[in-house]
Amino acid sequence: MDKSDKTGIRQLYRKNPVAADQLLWGRKSNTVNRRGFLKNSGLMAMSTALGMSIPFARFMPAGLIPVAFAAENAANVIEGKEGLIVLNDRPVNAETPAHLLDDNITPNRYMFIRNNGVPPENVNPETWQLEIGGESVERPASFSIADLKQRFEEVTLQLQLECGGNGRSEFVPAASGNQWTVGAVGCPTFTGVRLRDVLNYCGVLGDAVYVGYYGADTHVSGDASRDPISRGVPIGKALERESLIAWQMNGEDIPLQNGYPLRLVCAGWPGSVSGKWLNRLVVRNQLHDGEKMAAPSYTVPINSVAPGSRVPDEEMRIIESMPVKSLITFPQSGITHDIRERLIVRGHAWAGDDQVSAVFISIDFGATWLPSGMQGAANRLAWQNWETWAQFPKPGYYEVWARAMDGQGRSQPMIVPGWNPRGYLNNACHRVAVQVV
Ligand SMILES: Nc1nc2c(c(=O)[nH]1)N[C@H]1C(S)=C(S)[C@@H](COP(=O)(O)O)O[C@H]1N2
Ligand SMILES: [Mo]
Prior knowledge:
Helix content is 11%, strand content 28%. By secondary structure, the chain is an alpha+beta fold. The strands form seven sheets. The protein has a five-stranded mixed β-sheet with strand order 5-4-15-10-11. Strands 6, 9, 12, 13 and 14 form a five-stranded antiparallel β-sheet that branches. Strand 12 and strand 13 (252-253) form a beta hairpin. The mean pLDDT is 93. The structure holds the ligand Nc1nc2c(c(=O)[nH]1)N[C@H]1C(S)=C(S)[C@@H](COP(=O)(O)O)O[C@H]1N2 and molybdenum atom.
């Protein structure tokens, strides 16, 4: 293949990013200088492939694959979720392109879908029951949705959910699982009751350490004795004010794929702790032992490991609060922009259980960073919106990068962080391509 074959390079990038990288950047030849930046021949190949010049090329690290070569949108197939990119159809997994996450509150149709099994059919909210049990509950009980509404205070909160595997597609060597890019995240409002009100009503014994969930979805194998997933949170997280048992998303029934008619929402942690189609909660006197609680699921190495390593289960820890991250939701990657105008740049940022303290953007591959304006969260565990603008010195290919910092001063990395066997917790900076003319 020729370096100037843009379509070919895009296809190669999707199939084998490492090979595409090598072809474009000629890593094997001497096109890279000692500091890891490109020399002229590599740059010319890159500009030819892009079809335009790169004004800040001197800051472009070698090995960086221009975000302009990222995958194009595939055809959508999920009813009521138009625009989502389907990564898998059995079980259904679909992510939201970043530019469709521009709303401050994620609309139901743009909430990503991550299913481990097959959602229940013919759900009847009138007869739906939620059982509360487990060895550390004083008075096991069963509630209809009407009981929950009648007995407990109703609360509405905006809550951010992100799949632990969001960003997995960037890990090298590749990690198995859905190849999420950036769109397995959303922040709708949820209406329901506090998990702690329900647990306290039933009585939590002093030895309680964990709350596990079970849902009505079934295993893809069809084997009724197997749960697709049954995870949960430590009792401390369960008893927080923001942990909800919800029956509404954005004031409407929760979409079937997102857990209709009832789901758990424990925001800021991997989405996998927020059980959908919720029909049973267990208060445990030990770490919950449901499906996908054990390593390697939703765990990362306690100590960093070399890419591609095999890591023994006992050297893995369960993921809790998610790391700081941000998304550029405007402009859409790949736009053409008039050099005479300022470009508005905006998006959201979140930091697990923590707050975001600042968001910066760069238009020169990270050489300089400018702080953006930021709003506070609607409530704890909601994402925060930020907005700023950029102005470009001359025509050509640019990337806008965003980098958020949490309340403890921890920043997003510019490149993919610590490799781990299942490809979790990639909170690298989001990048969008802009062609300035
Ligand atoms: N019962 C059940 N709950 C579940 C899942 C599932 O497959 N079954 N997937 C989990 C995972 S891994 C994630 S990331 C979130 C996704 O929520 P969403 O599909 O509403 O975006 O739901 C979690 N809760
Ligand atoms: Mo997930």
